[in-house]
Each structure stands twice: as structure tokens, then as C-alpha cells.
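Ticket #4471: structure output looks truncated?

Reporter: J.K.
Steps to reproduce: submitted the chain below (238 residues) through the standard prediction queue, then opened the result file.
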Amino acid sequence: MARPTQTPSNCKLPLLQQVVDRERLADELVRRMEPTFAAGGNRVRGCRIEQLYYKPGGECRILFGMQFQPPDTDRTVRQLFYGCIHSESAATDSLESIDPKRLVEPRLGRPVSHLADWDMVVWAFPNDPQLRGLPMLADKGRVLERLRAAPERYGLNDAPVAIEAERTKYVPGRRCGYRFRLTLGNGSTQTIYAKSYARSVAERAYRSLNEVANSRPARDGELIVPRPYCLDEDTDVV
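Returned output as attached by the reporter:
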């Protein structure tokens, strides 16, 4: 039996009482977002709530995926979304702070939407206002171009000629990791891992990883940890 979820009685986000019911939340998201996609002939075939994050006194972040059926086809396309429920004033501030130049066109729909009655701002992956490096990580062509330009900076002994990408854990507004399997020009293969962080966290994460990797237990082989190659300061990617 599932343990009932309790929300604070003095919660500043009244909607939170509703979103803890994942099935109900999924149905409501479909109902509110479907008109946007129906305009392009796409039909919503399902919605799944992946994660829900809430810190008392703060915002509520929801990671969810929706299945769409484009017109004139039987196949379905999955689009990932990050919805953030703010207080009313914070939702307005979030919308006003959007830089259109940083938005990336998703597979379907708009890069960002506003569900006004919920004070929710919805970002279509790979758009995330806190993770400015995520659009680059999600585009393996751009990653390959960076690696080819300076392979030694990323721990490679030759320039890569092919790349396979796999997204690992994504915590909206906090971090997102990718694993890249590379085929190098000399015929060897190598796997590297990259993570996009929020701007205020990236440098600290890189410094902490270096400290652990250079610690005596790690040098003596008692502790096995990944060694960070570099921090891309223009994207906040380690």
C-alpha cells in the first residue's frame, strides 16, 4: 500500500495539494497542453510524471514526458518537459527574464509555455533556464565538434570521428548528465561523461571533484573516483 503524501498546511503553493496525485496531475497537464499541440495536428497519446521535487517554502518542479502522434503517421514521438510551479510574482519574473536567443526549438511545440491558472512555467527539453549548457549537451553534433577542436582538453589521445550519446539522470533546474561513447580517429574507443550544472554550482562541483581525485586515498588506489578533465566556463559543463 502506498503511503499517502502530506503537504504543509501553510504551503504557499495551493496547487501542491493537487499535484501530489500523479495520475490526476498527468490528466490535467494533458487537458491544459493539448490545445497547443492540436494546432499543429499532433494528438496527445499519454503523459507520464517522471519526478516531482518540492522544497518547503520554495517552488515545485515537475519532470514529465508526453507522447504525441504527429499527423498522417502511426508512430509516436516523446517530448520531455520541465514544469515549475511558482508563486504568482515569481512566475511573472521567470517569464520576463527569458532570453529568446537562448531558447532551442524542441521536437514538438514551443520552447516555453505558461499555464497561467497554475502559475506554472513549462520548458520543453532541452530548454532549462538554470542549465545553460544543456542544449549543447543534448546535441551530439555540437559535442562532437567541441571534442574534435581540442581532444586533449577532454582527455582524448586523438580526435573523435563518431559519437553515441545517452542521457543519464536529469534533475530539472539543478543538473543533467550525459554519457558519450566515442570512436577515435586511431580506431580506439573511449567513453566520457559530462554534466551540466546550474551556474552557481558548476565551479564548486569541478573544484570538489578535483580535490577528491587528488586526495591521498584516490592516489593510492583505495578510492576510485572520476577525474574531471575541465570546466567549460561558457556553458557550466564539467
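Triage note (M.O.): checked the attachment and the full C-alpha cell line is present. Residues 134-219 form one domain.
Status: closed, working as intended.
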